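Quarterly update from the structural biology core.
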Amino acid sequence: TQSVFLTTEIMRKLKTLLFFTSVLTSCGVSKSSFSPYHKFSPQELQKDFTIYQSVLESHHPGLYWYTSKDSMDHYFNWGKEQLKDSMTEPQFKKILNYVTAQINCGHTTVRSSKAWNSYLDTTRLGRMFPLTVKVWDEAMVVTGNLNRRDSILTRGAIITRINERTKEELVDTMFANISTDGYNRTHKYQTLSNRGFFGSIYTTLFGISDTYTFGYLDSTGKSKTITIPAYKAVRDTSARTGTRPFTPSLPQPSKKERRRQAADNVRLLKIDTASQTAMMDLASFGKGYGLKMFFKNSFKALQKNNINYLIIDVRSNGGGSVTNSTFISRFIAKQQFKISDSLYAIRKGSSYQGYIQNHFWNKLFITFLTKKKKDGNYHFGFFERHYYKPKKNHHYDGKVYILTGGNSFSATTLFVNSIIKQENVTVIGEETGGGAYGNSAWLIPDVKLPETGLRFRLPLFRLVTDKDIPKNGRGVQPEVFTPPTVEDVKKGTDYKLDKALELINKDKTQQKD
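Predicted structure, tokenized:
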């Protein structure tokens, strides 16, 4: 374990050196010469697409995991067929997004070029899709409206159509452009429901409109329509007119305080000694948040205060460091556990190394920390063999309720998988967004396409969590399924947390009896 840690630290420092070297030697497009309207020639697009396809076929360990080779060849060919005319970066990205989503790998996604992102950071917001929504199988419900004077499409309003497209038509089209592990629909629904994403992908796929016509159900259940304008962000001109109201300057928090606030937004423990219940919010397993010390202090506090019930909320936890996710598992696990039955890369070197971020260091990692086996793959044997033992100090033996949903991804899925079979653990909510059987992840460099500058994430390792779990392309299923309802969304209730508290109160009653 120590050698793995040291190698990881060395790689981190080397990657930092490589980053600064690349900054000094890069010759990217300057802000002054960048134009969002620039169109790339078919030849430039075809070159980038060929590199995109070749890198995926050469390195992606799960390219044909949930989609057959014949099917992926069909999608690649479809993508090539679209490149007969010049395109802007967003138009090309739209094609890559669609093809990439067909891989059914949640860690393989397309990102804009750095030049495009810099442009977005400095440009003034124009017209915007006016609504945020919560979407699931049964309904599409308004959660927010940027046009605050609109008294019709308020929180809880049920949307049936947008610009003549039904909810089902919209969902099918959007789903085809969202990457996920396997055939997981919960993650895609949750992605559409995340703030701002529905409007973003709607605009990408269907364009921006001056007005939007929404079909909706009124309070009596009758179908009606309403047309509202796109939201237009208004620039604050009060400074130029001299009418800006006086606002006293507030003292800025110190760097230490800012770090503490950032950490509290990621991990927080609340203890109610009267009810013997604690709530742990975990929004990430990422590094840099002091999670190991937080877990140590938290479970020490739970033991000191005789807390019998612990709710762990990982609904917004997209994953992060496996070291952190296994560390908390050890405070709860009653038996030793593994995080993988197999973990391997399919290739070490690459003829496309100039496009792959940190390729030299990733190759170094695979060379010295993996072993090529008879199947031709490079296996990271440490995690295939290693069992993690439960913690002895401050081990938690009370009842644990884990809240999950479509945003629970990657390392979060490993955490849930490691303890879900225990009698004192109950998983509440919806299936995890991350695949229960496994995923393609671990080392995930960016690949930068040379002509457009577009980037896509390339997972290098394929992880099978437990070979006995059905390979059905689904996430970890909750033991207490708690889906949303229209009334829940309208009232803004935390129905999953309410279910956990209900089960805790029920257990207390049974204990008394």
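The longest strand covers residues 211-217.
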